[in-house]
Amino acid sequence: MIDLRHLSVFFLSLFLAVSCSGGTSCGTPLEDPVTDPVTDPGTDPGTDPGTDPGIDPLEGDQVPPGTLTRLFPDRDTVFGEAIDTFPDPSRIRPTMVGPDVPEDEGELLWEYAILDDQLVNASFEAPLSHRRLWAAYARLVPLEWRVPLLRVTFYLEQDGISNLARVNQTEVGQDTLLELSFAKYLSNFLGNGDTLDDSLFSLFVHETSHVFESADADSVAAPARWCFYRTNCPPGQTWFDRFWNEFWSEAQLAEWQAIIDEFQTPDTRAPYQELVYPRFPELFVSRYAATNVTEDLAESFLEFVQRDELPESDDYNGAAKVRWLWQHQALVSLRGQLRAAR
User: Fold this and answer.
1) 3-state SS string over 17-86?
2) Burial of residue 11 (number of CB atoms within 10 Å: 0-12, 13-18, 19+)
3) Which residues contact 18 (CB under 8 A, 6 or more apart)?
């Protein structure tokens, strides 16, 4: 039996499936889902209208009726709403493979297309809890910085083990899109009048870095072009590329790979950051930043947004990366918008 959640993702892969799995950027895990029913706050989300990307609002996929209540017979609520009126998920994504794994074992996914900045699924109306969290993200992050974010998924793990959020880059037909996935930990948000606490704000900012890392870094303000898979822009054009070239030298990569080769065996698969960070703590703003380039950029960007002032290069671990972000007016402008919208 293989646990798919624990497979390593090689950070040089052009297919980026990046996840926030509990590092500093994720904040402390939020509480379990609230048990009180969610109520409509009665306010207009106030988001700017998006652009219809021409992608079908999903094709009507949905598991058999009653799946949700069958899998959770002892629960009264899910995402803070009554389980007996909550829509069944779009599908179940296996997290384990093997002959003894039940067919319906895995993550329950509620999948939506983003059309006019709203959650759309052809099979069911997005429940209030999902709409409220998406509206909070859309209020926080300017539309022009999330143009390629065309899918949103809410997921619920049956065993209670889950990342907080993740951004996936994938292809649908001729379109390249980003998908933002939210996990079940919404109670701090739903129970506090849709207020973003420190944990959820940090989560949103971290994941937004995963969205804009594929943007053209030569844009003087909001991204003028998106460079998916690094194929429709010249080499070195994206924020990911620029950060990589500035801070992840070939010599460093070779040294870090040697650490991996020395300490990891097929039986001991320690997380990458657990091996690299202790050797080079001065290079990273957090332990999780040592996971790979994309997480290093996301953690550094979060530090850049949260800190009030431009640091000196040696003010704290990883401060040189935060100083580098301050050199780019487009990111300074985005920082100001995120802080003002909170």
Assistant:
1) EEEECCCHHHCCCCCCCCCCCCCCCCCCCCCCCCCCCCCCCCCCCCCCCCHHHHHCCCCCEECCEECCCC
2) middle
3) 9, 166, 167, 168, 210, 292, 294, 295, 298
Of the listed ranges 98-107, 110-119, 144-153, 168-177, the one predicted with least confidence: 168-177
Residue 302 is predicted with a pLDDT of: 97
Q: What's the one-letter identity of residue 169?
A: Q
Instruction: Read off the pLDDT of residues 211-238 as tens digits, 9 standing for 90 and up.
Output: 899 888 988 788 888 886 545 677 788 9
Q: What six digits make up the tokens of 16?
A: 């980026």
pTM equals: 0.77
The token pair that represents 100 in the structure block: 């003894």
Tokens, residue 185? 């930990």
Identify the pLDDT of residue 77.
83
Domain limits, the chain = 2-193, 228-341
How many residues are recorded in the chain? Answer: 342
Closest to 212 measured CA to CA, from 18, 51, 29, 12: 18
Q: Which residues of 319-334 are buried (b: 16+ CB within 10 A; e: fewer)?
A: bbbbbbbeebebbeeb
